[in-house]
Design a protein that fits this description.
Radius of gyration: 23 Å
Largest sheet: 8 strands, parallel, barrel
Number of helices: 12
Shape: elongated
Helix content: 25-40%
Number of strands: 19
Strand order of the largest sheet: 2-3-4-5-6-7-8-9
Distance between the termini: 16 Å
Bound molecules: pyridoxal-5'-phosphate
Length: 368
């Protein structure tokens, strides 16, 4: 690691979270590692969840399937999103399942050699993203896939409002899902509807698996018993006194009111530390500091209450700054904050109690 801006990912704590959630759900565990495991690194997180007993890994795309297969993951896999019909040969070859989500998609698929393609039927129970709504159409879809030699491995739906206190929408969606699953009366190996939040409050006799993404990282509206395995850090490279009446950064948006201690740290919007972070609190050397002036591409200025030397660590989120609060202040959700952390931010992994190999996209490219 040359530029000292890094995300720490404690894989042991992720594994502990998997074990704790499995105890609560008592169902098969599908670890949702889409979008590079929400920016945390799918290869590494995959190893941890597999060791902790995950039964399946779900990803966003065929690329992510191939990436994990390439890295030696041999367990069950599912593409949750929309695989392109022209890519099914790659899925069959990789022995990974995908969502079958519309009649038009199925028509594209069965025109090709799709023998052995594993699918999970997607049910739209009210979110209106992907999936079947109509029982007759669903039945037809199932028969056509079977006739074409596809393997119907599962059926699933997705809840739109599982993070809300009120469960009216979730219950309504579940009723729609249950009715369709029961009407099909088919021996699906996997029946699943619960995401992270629903896994913790929604208990039913129909589904036999849960799909858990964000709660792997300890983020949940329903429990605070989980470990918080991810944190983001950077480093101070300069610290100085700025007299009263000077301005800080692009646009001169901040003016010092008195003699102030201003530090410059190595994180900016190109790292995913978006400009809306202006004014945010970060943690430096035992106290909180404030982002003053605009966030630059690679750097940010902080107002401190005491001087610190070059090399001092800044915690952006972690043990002293909650990721949930940070997301709320940014008017977004933790998912978006961590997915946006860019590839040039080094990922530092802790696994089996040891600091493991660091990953940085730019370094990987430069040694290739
Ligand atoms: C992303 C996603 C999940 C995981 O959601 P979390 O809230 O992170 O647990 C589950 N199912 C589907 C269909 C998804 O798209």
């Amino acid at each position: 690691m040359f530029r000292k801006t890094w995300m720490e990912v404690n894989l042991d704590e992720i594994a502990d979270n998997v074990r704790k959630i499995r105890e609560i759900s008592k169902k098969k565990f599908i670890a949702v590692l889409k979008a590079d495991a929400y920016g945390c690194g799918d290869i590494q997180v995959c190893r941890a969840v597999e060791e902790a007993g995950a039964d399946m890994v779900a990803v966003s795309s065929v690329d992510e399937v191939l990436m994990l297969r390439n890295e030696g993951y041999r367990g069950e896999m599912l593409v949750l999103g929309t695989a392109d019909p022209s890519d099914i040969a790659a899925l069959i070859e990789a022995d990974a399942a995908t969502a079958a989500y519309s009649m038009e998609w199925i028509e594209h698929v069965i025109q090709q050699n799709c023998k052995g393609l594993r699918v999970h039927l997607a049910i739209d129970s009210g979110m209106n993203r992907i999936g079947f709504k109509d029982e007759a159409e669903l039945r037809d879809a199932l028969h056509r896939l079977e006739a074409a030699g596809c393997i119907i491995d599962g059926i699933f739906t997705h809840f739109a409002c599982a993070d809300e206190k009120d469960h009216v929408m979730t219950n309504r969606q579940f009723a729609v899902f249950e009715k369709l699953v029961k009407a099909l009366d088919y021996p699906f190996r996997y029946i699943h509807c619960d995401n992270s939040d629903a896994t913790l409050f929604h208990h039913d006799m129909l589904s036999n698996a849960c799909r858990v993404g964000i709660t792997l990282y300890g983020i949940s509206s329903y429990t605070d018993e989980l470990a918080h395995p991810i944190s983001l850090y950077t480093t101070i490279y300069m610290c100085k006194h700025v007299p009263a009446g000077e301005t800080i950064g692009y646009g001169a948006t901040y003016t010092t009111e008195e003699d102030e201690i201003i530090a410059t740290a190595a994180i900016g919007y190109a790292d995913g530390f978006v400009r809306a972070n202006q004014g945010r609190k970060v943690y430096v050397d035992g106290t909180y500091a404030t982002v003053v002036g605009r966030v630059c591409m690679d750097q940010v200025m902080l107002k401190l209450d005491h001087e610190v030397p070059l090399g001092t660590t800044v915690e952006i989120f972690g043990p002293h700054v909650s990721l949930e609060e940070m997301a709320e202040e940014l008017h977004t959700i933790p998912y978006e904050v961590i997915c946006l952390i860019s590839g040039r931010v080094t990922r530092k992994y802790i696994f089996h109690g040891e600091e493991k190999a660091e990953q940085n996209e730019r370094l990987i490219r430069s040694v290739r």
